[in-house]
Amino acid sequence: MDIAIAGGTGTLGSRVAEELRTRGHRVRVLSRRSPEYPVDLTTGEGLIDALAGCDVLVDAANGHGTAKGAARTLVDGSRRLLAAARAVGVQHHVCVSIVGCDMVPMGYMQVKAEQEWVVREGRVPWTIVRATQFHELLASALASAAKWGVVPVPRARLRTVACMEAAWVVADVAEGVPHRGRIEVCGPEDTDVREMARVWRNVTGRKAVLMPMPLPGRMGQALRAGALTVERPDVRGTMSFGEWLRTEQVWASVAGLR
Ligand SMILES: NC(=O)c1ccc[n+]([C@@H]2O[C@H](COP(=O)([O-])OP(=O)(O)OC[C@H]3O[C@@H](n4cnc5c(N)ncnc54)[C@H](OP(=O)(O)O)[C@@H]3O)[C@@H](O)[C@H]2O)c1
C-alpha cells in the first residue's frame, strides 16, 4: 500500500514509518522538515501533492507550546489533512491520540479530544488509535528536570508504553480496514509517577532528589484517579518502564564502545 505519515519524522511517526517499510509498504514521510514531502499543517501547504495516490494517511503529527498553538497543528491541521485526503481519495485516516484525553481538564488534552471529534465528524473513513504516554516521554521529562538536581514528582497514575509497541499497533491498524472507532493501547504496568521516578533513578544511577509536588484542583484529582490509564485496553504492551530503561542503557553503552 501507499501510506502517508504526517509527523513521520517524530518520536512515534518515525517508528511507524520504519515498521511499515519493513512490512513492504511504500511510505511517505510528511513534515515541515521532510526532504521529500514537505507539508505544513498550519497552512495546508504541500498536502495535496503529498497525499495524491495514497491509500492510507496516518496522522502522527504533534503540536507543542500553548494549547492554542497545539490546536493550530492538531485541530485545524486535521481539518486540512482530511480535506486534502478526501480530495485525492485516501481510503483510511488513522489518527493517533491519547488514552483518557477527554477525561483530563488540561489544555493539550482538550485539544486532542477536539482533534478526535474533527476526525469522527470528517468524511474520510477513520480509526483513532489511543495510546498512553510513551516511556520515552517520561524518561526525557525526568532527565530534563534532573539537570536542576531536583525532580518534582506529582502523584499521578500512568500506564506508560514503549513507543515502538504503540507504533506496531498503529502499523497494524494502517494495514487494516477503517474501524470508525477507537483502538486503545497501553503499557503492562499501572503505576505512579513517583514509583516510576524511583525506578528511573535506580536504573540510570542519577542522583537527583525526588520532590513530591502537589497537583491541586480537578486536574490533580483526575490524574490521581488514573484518568490517563485504561483498565481493559485492546492491546497491552509487554515492556515495563524499568525493562525499557535497562534496554536503553545497554544500547547507550554499546554505542559508547563503538
Ligand atoms: N509522546 C507521547 O507520550 C504520546 C503518547 C500518546 C499519544 N501521543 C500522540 O502521538 C502523536 C505523535 O506524538 P510524538 O510525541 O511522536 O510527536 P513528536 O515527536 O513531537 O513529533 C511531531 C511530528 O509532527 C511534525 N509536525 C509538527 N508540526 C507540524 C506542522 N505544522 N506541519 C507538519 N508537521 C508538523 C514534526 O515534524 P516537523 O517539525 O519536521 O514538522 C514531527 O514529525 C501526537 O498526536 C501525540 O498526541 C503521544
UniProtKB/TrEMBL annotation:
PANTHER family: NADH DEHYDROGENASE [UBIQUINONE] 1 ALPHA SUBCOMPLEX SUBUNIT 9, MITOCHONDRIAL (PTHR12126:SF11), NADH-UBIQUINONE OXIDOREDUCTASE 39 KDA SUBUNIT-RELATED (PTHR12126). It comes from the Bacteria. Residues 7-134 form the NAD(P)-binding domain. InterPro entries: ComplexI_NDUFA9_subunit (IPR051207), NAD(P)-bd_dom (IPR016040), NAD(P)-bd_dom_sf (IPR036291). Pfam families: NAD_binding_10. This is SDR family oxidoreductase.
